[in-house]
Design a protein that fits this description.
four-stranded parallel sheet, single chain, 22% strand, alpha/beta, globular
Length: 156
């Protein structure tokens, strides 16, 4: 994807588009992220993946850190977890359909819902041989974290 080329065109940086990420959790205080226009649900599990996804898609244009593919897109989040109450008891439940419904109620034609649901896949059987000793190789024998080109730092 040649984001730098797309930035030369009207809307190429995401102007006028709203995206809601349906996932599990995010670090909305991350220095590379713009404020979200919508937030619903309850965060659960690790915030690293959701933060990385928002960063790849929409990290702010600043003099430091990373920059997203569409840095001016308006982002929102809708967690697949929500709290339910019964008398004096509260429980957090997984409700993907509710998260999608909450997100779609906030968007207009032309906006985007990014649906992300995943589960651990089968182990590749390969061991990591990098100098970092991370031990993290994905299904195809590659590291599973993202690095932004030219910045040398891991995002997530």
């Amino acid at each position: 994807m040649d984001a730098y080329y797309a930035w030369n065109f009207s809307g190429g940086r995401g102007e006028g588009v709203r995206v809601i990420d349906v996932e599990q959790n995010w670090n909305l205080a991350h220095e590379d992220l713009n404020p979200v226009f919508y937030s619903s649900g309850v965060g659960a599990d690790s915030w690293q993946h959701g933060t990385a996804v928002l960063g790849v898609m929409a990290a702010a244009e600043t003099a430091y850190g990373t920059v997203g593919i569409t840095p001016r897109v308006s982002t929102g989040i809708s967690s697949v977890y929500r709290n339910i109450f019964s008398g004096y008891l509260m429980a957090t439940i997984y409700d993907f359909a509710d998260a999608v419904n909450r997100a779609s109620a906030q968007l207009a034609p032309g906006d985007i819902i990014l649906l992300e649901q995943h589960a651990p896949g089968p182990a590749s059987g390969l061991s990591c041989t990098c100098k970092r000793g991370c031990g993290r190789l994905g299904r195809f024998g590659r590291h599973t974290r993202l690095r932004r080109p030219g910045h040398g730092q891991w995002f997530g």
